[in-house]
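RECORD TYPE: protein structure
NAME: Na/Pi symporter
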Amino acid sequence: MFGANIGTTITALLASIGQSKAAKRTVISHSIFNITGAIVFACLIRPFAAFITYISPSGNEVDVIARQIANAHNPLENLSMQQLNAMYDGQYKQWTDLSK
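PREDICTED:
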């Protein structure tokens, strides 16, 4: 999941080449969100994995792996956005203000 989050920032950066200022600001916003979230969760991977295992159904690994991935992805994205809002509220809005 971390690789996918960071990988999509490269795709967005490539897509923004030669585009408007608004498109480039959108890419910056997307990149900050994904990279910051990946860094925070990489530091918390062991307790996060234990939590996901705890809330996921038990059983044969093959049967529950999809549910574990879904259970891990949802908090990753939601908590990343909350963390960004808390840390960069004013600055984040300034960086991504499309009215300038």
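COMMENT: Residues 2-95 form one domain.
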